[in-house]
Each structure stands twice: as structure tokens, then as C-alpha cells.
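Task: sequence design from structure.
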């Protein structure tokens, strides 16, 4: 599966590992700052980049720790993506119990402590001193021994920083796990997210008086905490709701015999973002999204070409009684604009309609408004 804005660099245990394009901005900043600090010493720049490479590997191992812990509870991981301020392991679903989340959250920092322990053990056996400046190497052309000392310290600080209760960092997830042992999951998430946002503001204030990177970290934590809170609220609202409750029975359909010209006209004359493609017998054979259509035009495919030339033949159908939360997971994981909703009333399933991400978002807004109205009129 492709990931927009990221490059796949490896696959470990069946988990694809990506590096986001914005990571290049961090590399550029490191090169420029190292050149300024060392007054143009490119050897020093090389050592700094080598250290960054070691940290990147450490963060990937950290995220693999989360992924493998989740796998122990039969929770798959979609991918791991490296961003300028850390890595993100995208697990398929939330843990079923607070204890599972606690184990998964602690697995990442434990990997960093393990890396520190392995390096420290080697340094101890080699009789090397431990003291060292964290920010930069003590000399412009350091030794390999000094490199590993720096890497050990950075792994220690990485683990400790992640254990701060600043949700959605690991420490914040640990906090949510303990809160979820006493409160409903949505309430525990809300409390942990609020604590995380308080930390985010604190990071930003510290950044104003020192390191400006803390301002960016604070911004990331604040936004991520808010997004996580909304996501859990959405899953809570979807509890007990199945696909048939939110299915769109009226949806745009284009015949497989149509040309790109017909698709363009249909796109411009409606608010549709995607189309179901059906054969002459009315059977679904593919989908065509607005993005696919525009991409085909950019590639120079003539308007007279049949839409079957550019449509996505990958269709996913779910039973009408499939939980809506599972439908949302499928839409997030698969490269499809919508899923088909079918009901098995006989040997041949009957197509009831489709569901897309926008449809689910609208359903959540309506359901949330209805619940707020009920709460306001309740005695």
C-alpha cells in the first residue's frame, strides 16, 4: 500500500517503514547548524549525520517495539512512518483492555533503555568513561567510541522524554491506560488529552525562552492530542452502529461504456467526489475518484478514452451488519473511495448502497448533535 508524501525504505516483520518528505527539512537544518557550529568542517557534519542515522534506527526500533507488543495481542500494525519529530506506528485498532495499552505503550521506551544498556555494557567492559556533552561532539573529528556514548545518552533521553504524560506520547498513553481502569475509555482519553495539551503549552513556553524546536513539538503534541480525542469520541459514537444504519442508497453511477468526457461532465455538474462504475447488467466493476480522474487528465489520457482505462477495479464489499467502526477502518487502510454494502437475502447478495469517509463523518455529526439535544432536555 502506498503512503502519500512518504517513501518506503524497508519492511520489517511484514510492516512497511516510511520516511515522510518533511524529514528532509530536519536533515537540512542539521547540516546547516553543524556547518555553523564547526565553521565549515564537513567531517563534523558527517559525524552529526551518522549520529542522526543512529537515532533514526533507534526510533524505528522503538516503534517496532510498539508494533510487536501489539502483535502479541493480535493487533496488526499498518506501517511505521518517520517524521521530523519522531516516529508513528499506525496500529489497526485500539487495544481491547487498559492492560494491553499499558504493555504496548511501555514497549517502545523499554527498547530505548535496552539499546542504552547494550551500549553501556560494551563501554563498561571497555573501561570507557561515561561523561559527555549531549548537544555536540567534544571535538570536530570524534572517535567511534564517542559516537556510541552519544547514541546511548540520546536513547536514554528519548525514552525518558517519551514517558512524560503528554498524550499522545507513550507516557500519555500509560496515563490513559491507568485512567481507563476507572473511567470509560472516552472519558479517560479526554482527561489524558487535556493533560497532554497542558504539557504542549508548557513546551511552547519553554521554546520561547530557549530552544524554538520545543515550540514545534508543543504544537505537534497539542494537535495530535486533539485529533486522538476526536477519533476516540467517534469510535464511541459508532459503538453498536452497523453499516446498514449509514448506507447511502442514492449514489453517483457511471456506465462502464462511458468515456472520460462523460466522467468530467458528471464531476462538474454534481458534488460527487467519486463514482461507482457498473457494467451493462448493473453489476459493480470498479470505482473512479475525482483524484484518479484529474490524474488521468494530467497524464494526457484523451477524453475519448473509456473510463475502464483509468478506473480502480479494486472493490470491497461488506455485509450490512458489519460494524460501522470496521467500515471506517477499511476505508483508512485500503486504497478505495468507498465500500459496497450488501445484504445476503439469497444466493446472490443484494447491493444496498455505498459508504464513504465523508458519509461516516456526517453520520457522526448528526448522532453527536442528537445526543447533545437529548442531554439538554433530560431532567
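Answer:
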Amino acid at each position: 500500500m502506498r503512503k502519500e508524501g512518504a517513501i518506503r525504505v524497508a519492511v520489517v516483520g511484514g510492516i512497511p517503514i516510511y520516511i515522510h518528505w518533511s524529514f528532509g527539512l530536519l536533515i537540512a537544518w542539521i547540516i546547516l547548524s553543524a556547518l555553523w557550529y564547526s565553521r565549515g568542517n564537513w567531517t563534523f557534519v558527517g559525524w552529526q549525520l551518522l549520529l542522526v542515522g543512529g537515532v533514526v534506527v533507534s526510533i524505528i526500533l522503538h516503534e517496532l517495539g510498539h508494533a510487536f507488543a501489539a502483535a502479541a495481542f493480535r493487533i496488526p500494525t499498518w506501517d511505521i512512518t518517520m517524521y521530523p519529530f519522531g516516529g508513528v506506528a499506525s496500529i489497526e485498532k485500539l487495544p481491547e483492555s487498559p492492560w494491553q495499552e499499558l504493555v504496548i505503550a511501555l514497549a517502545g521506551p523499554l527498547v530505548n533503555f535496552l539499546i542504552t544498556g547494550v551500549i553501556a555494557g560494551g563501554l563498561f567492559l571497555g573501561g570507557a568513561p561515561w561523561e559527555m556533552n549531549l548537544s555536540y561532539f567534544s571535538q570536530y573529528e570524534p572517535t567511534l567510541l564517542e559516537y556510541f556514548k552519544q547514541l546511548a545518552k540520546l536513547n536514554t533521553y528519548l525514552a525518558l522524554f517519551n514517558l512524560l504524560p503528554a498524550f499522545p506520547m507513550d507516557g500519555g498513553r500509560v496515563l490513559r491506560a491507568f485512567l481507563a481502569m476507572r473511567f470509560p475509555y472516552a472519558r479517560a482519553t479526554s482527561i489524558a488529552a487535556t493533560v497532554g495539551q497542558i504539557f504542549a503549552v508548557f513546551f511552547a513556553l519553554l521554546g520561547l525562552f530557549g530552544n524554538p524546536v520545543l515550540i514545534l513539538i508543543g504544537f505537534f503534541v497539542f494537535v495530535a492530542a486533539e485529533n486522538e480525542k476526536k477519533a476516540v469520541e467517534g469510535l464511541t459514537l459508532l459503538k453498536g452502529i452497523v453499516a446498514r444504519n449509514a448506507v447511502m442508497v442514492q449514489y453517483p453511477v457511471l456506465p462502464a461504456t462511458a468515456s472520460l468526457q462523460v466522467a468530467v461532465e458528471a464531476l462538474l455538474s454534481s458534488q460527487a467526489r467519486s463514482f461507482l462504475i457498473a457494467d451493462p447488467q448493473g453489476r459493480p466493476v470498479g470505482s473512479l475518484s475525482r483524484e484518479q480522474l484529474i490524474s488521468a487528465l494530467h497524464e494526457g489520457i484523451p477524453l475519448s478514452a473509456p473510463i475502464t482505462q483509468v478506473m480502480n477495479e479494486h472493490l470491497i464489499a461488506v455485509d450490512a451488519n458489519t460494524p460501522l467502526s470496521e467500515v471506517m477502518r477499511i476505508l483508512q487502510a485500503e486504497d478505495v473511495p468507498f465500500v459496497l454494502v450488501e445484504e445476503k437475502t439469497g444466493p446472490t447478495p443484494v447491493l444496498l448502497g455505498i459508504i464513504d469517509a465523508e458519509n461516516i463523518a456526517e453520520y457522526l455529526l448528526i448522532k453527536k448533535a442528537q445526543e447533545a439535544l437529548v442531554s439538554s432536555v433530560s431532567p
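DSSP finds eleven helices and ten strands in the chain.
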